[in-house]
Structure formats: C-alpha cells, structure tokens
Amino acid sequence: MNDAMIVNCVAYANGHKLPHLTLENVPALLRDPADAFVWLGLREPDEELMARIQDLFGLHELAAEDAHRAHQRPKVERYGDGLFVALRTAQLRDGQVDFGETHLFVGPRYLISVRHGASSPFTAVRARCESNPELLRKGPGFVLYAILDFVVDHYFPILDGVEDTVEQLEEQFFKGDFSPEDISLLYELKRDLVNLRRAVAPLVEVCNYLVTDVFNGLIPEDIRPYFRDVYDHALRINEAVDALRETLVMTLQISLSLSATRQNEATKKLAGWGALLATPTMVFSVYGMNFKAMPELNWSYGYPLVMGSVAVICLVLYRFLRKAGWL
Domain 2-259 - what CATH class? Predict the structure, then answer.
C-alpha cells in the first residue's frame, strides 16, 4: 500500500539522475559525502508511510503531522536546517474550482513533496529540472523554485476561465437577460475567488521570505532571482483576483439595480392603468346605485354625453401618463 502512495523516488548528483533508488537506499545515500540529493514524491500518504519518511529524513514531528493531515494555509517554516512549505493548489473542472494542497520538505540533501486533493502531477516539473542540469546542480533550492513556479502558473488558466465567465455574465446583466441561475453562478464565482485569494495571497509572503538571505546555503544566491520571478507572478495573480472580485461586486450591484428598475417600471404601469380605470369605475358605480331622479332619464343625449365625457377624460389622462413615462 505504501508503494502506491510513492509517486517517485529519485536521486540526483551533479545535475544528473542516478538510477535505481528506493527508500531502503536513502539512508546510505544521505550518509554518502557525495554531492547528491533525493527528490521524493508522495500522494496522500497514510500515517504509517509518513512516520517512515519522518524517520528516514529526520523531519520535525509537527511538520510531518501538518503534511499528513493537510488543511494548512500557505506558509513557510524553518525546522533546524530544513524548510517546510505549504501550498494551495487549484484545478478548474466543469466550471468549478477544486482546491488541494502540496507540502514540501526541503533540506540540504532532499526535497519531499506531499500532494493532497486537486493537484497536477509534477512530471512536467521533473522534466524541466532534468533538462537544466546546470541549475539542477544547485540542489533542492532549484527544485523548490520549479515547484513553486509550476503551482503559481497553474492559477493563470483558472483566472482566465473565471474572467471569461464573468464577462459573459456582465453581457447578460447589461442586456437584462439573466435568470436566477445566473445570480447563483455569480455567487459561486465570488466564493471561488475568495478561496483563490486565500490560496494565493499568502504566496506573496512565502516567496518574499524565500528571497531573503535567512536560509544561508539552503537556497543559493544565484537561485534567489528565480524566486523573485515567482513573487512577481503571485503579485499579478493577487491583483487579478482583486480586480475580478470588484467586477463581480459591481455586476451584482448592477443586476440588483436593474431588477429594482424593472420592478419600478412594472409598478408605474400598473399605477397608470389603475388611474385610467378609476374614472369610468367612479362614474359607472354612481349609475349602479339606481337613483330615481337622474337628469339623463328625461334627456335622450344624457347617456351619450356621459359616455363621451368619460372617454375624453380617459384619453386626456392616457396621453398625460404616456408623456410622463408611466405607460
């Protein structure tokens, strides 16, 4: 069962991949004075496997517990001569944004990645690192950058998809052609953007922390500019998320304003037609009282005059309400 949770276990020396590495060989490789490091990839390991990894690499128990249980906010912590980095990953599936977590243990001779939930495999990251032996020779620091860059870059397609959906909703709202399902979708997008901001905003602090010189030789000086590039990408994503959130709020306000406007128009029309009906209703209700003495009874033009007067009053009132925009 443990083997199924081990995605990959590879060692690199002098920028090149070493063959045939297993967990049983890790202690001997770490004791070897040669400049080699291990890149171990795990997928949702159980408690038994995580305890074994903790023992092999000497991981701090608090960091190992965080990596096993997940549900961590993006952060970077230092334990002895190693780092623990927690990241939030995201994938766009059927218009919905699914979130996962990736935890990284970085030491002088190892990098361990632990993935949970929605996250893409690091096959492309490994290929990229192996195609740059000069940078891979720098050790786990460069691999840490490559994974950070991979995770951050995967936010851009998600933002593009959300932005396209928001633009479609905007067009529908401005045309007045929207349904309750569109309002529900707008709230879902707003919720996804809130979760996306929670995932991306701390990355700015993480990248800024990694650029500093507090880690001595763990991250070589010539690798730090690469982290500044990831830092710039994280800032761009944060700005894009904030802009989309403001757009969604504005779109929601516009939709509510348009709904209120349409309700007011309907109310005005109903009030206008009610005013038109009030005149004949009042006059004809008088004739429904069956008075004995009515002037029209002894005058043959009485009723035509009353009907004509009612028609003229209704016509004048109709033109007035039409001009006022109530009909």
Answer: alpha beta
